[in-house]
Design goal:
Order of helices and strands: HHHEHEEHEHEHEHHHHEE
Helix content: 25-40%
Largest sheet: 6 strands, mixed
Strand content: 15-25%
CATH superfamily: LigB-like
Number of helices: 11
Strand order of the largest sheet: 5-2-6-1-8-7
CATH topology: Protocatechuate 4,5-dioxygenase, Chain B
Radius of gyration: 19 Å
Number of strands: 8
CATH architecture: 3-Layer(aba) Sandwich
Length: 311
């Protein structure tokens, strides 16, 4: 690909069967069973607490096209994402995904029962616009999420037409290639206030006990010009070192540091605009008292990227 195409590509950095029973009209003989099935997607009841995870989604449809990435870098990120499901305590009843690629005036929920694909990248080969990840939506979960956010002081909205953007379908196609886990997307809030997004995450914490895996999809480095400049590699290392310390601190210090992330070393060189970092704020909020582990610390075009798991 040409440098122009790569620049365009990098700009993208920015269960059906399980839900079928929940969506089906119960028969006269099985009405209670249908109601229980619907509730099972919303409130999991007893079971292991799911972690809250912040992960990198890479640039555009990077696993399926040639971007000239270092093969080692590509393989390390791909292996991390492909092994994600195996490291969970159980199969999630649903996924709630906060993607860097959706912002709305108030937190918005994607309620399409069978979300279409949203190819929000450009400059790639035509086959990258045929990638499919046909996971079912999780509209039954949306009222529960909206109520938790309302209790925390957030008005919400819904979007019945939006599909899975690449912040969702790229990493999750690697993690759940069967596309068999109901998935609900939640937007960022316009203004990108870190304290607000930490508060959103705190409101979502109870979902983890309902069998819902809360996933923040972004990047710990996201400067489009910097991706092509080797002199920015040490800058990414400097910020990543700060973020590792902040993200793994005790909850009170973690929240204080992340709310003031723009004071970190090289913060605005690493994130001229912070939409790719804000999903981590939601995940840190949803972490509660859990401390972080960092199961992936790799790189993308020489820039340091990390994943954070809480719980």
């Amino acid at each position: 690909m040409s440098r122009r195409e790569l620049m365009g590509a990098a700009a993208g950095l920015a269960g059906a069967s399980m839900l079928g029973a929940a969506c089906a009209e119960p028969s006269a003989a099985g009405a209670d069973t249908g109601a229980a099935s619907r509730d099972s997607v919303v409130r999991g009841g007893a079971g292991p607490r799911m972690p809250a995870i912040f992960l990198p989604h890479g640039g555009g449809p990077w696993p399926w096209v040639e971007l000239g990435l270092d093969p080692r870098e590509k393989q390390e990120m791909q292996s991390y994402l492909e092994g994600l499901a195996k490291g969970l305590p159980a199969k999630p009843r649903a996924l709630l995904v906060i993607s860097a690629h959706w912002e709305a005036k108030q937190p918005s929920l994607m309620v399409h029962p069978s979300p279409p694909m949203l190819y929000d990248y450009y400059g790639f080969p035509k086959e990258s616009y045929a990638v499919q990840w046909p996971a079912p939506g999780a509209p039954q979960l949306a009222p529960r999420v909206a109520e938790l956010l309302r209790q925390a002081g957030f008005a919400t909205s819904s979007d019945a037409e939006r599909g899975f953007d690449h912040g969702t379908f790229v990493p999750l196609k690697l993690a759940w290639p069967e596309a068999d886990v109901p998935t609900l997307q939640l937007s960022l809030k316009v203004g990108l206030d870190p304290a607000e997004h930490l508060a959103m995450g705190r409101a979502l914490l109870p979902l983890r006990d309902d069998g819902v895996l809360v996933v923040g999809s972004g990047m710990t480095y996201h400067n489009m010009r910097g991706f092509f400049d080797p002199e920015e590699n040490p800058v990414s290392e400097e910020f990543d070192a700060w973020l590792r310390e902040a993200g793994a601190a005790d909850p009170r210090e973690r929240d204080r540091s992340l709310a003031e992330w723009a004071k970190a070393p090289s913060a605005r060189r690493v994130h001229p605009r912070e939409e790719h970092l804000l999903p981590m704020m939601v995940i840190a909020g949803a972490a509660g008292a859990d401390r972080a582990t960092i199961p992936y610390r790799g790189s993308y075009s020489g820039k340091r990227l990390s994943a954070y798991h809480y719980g």
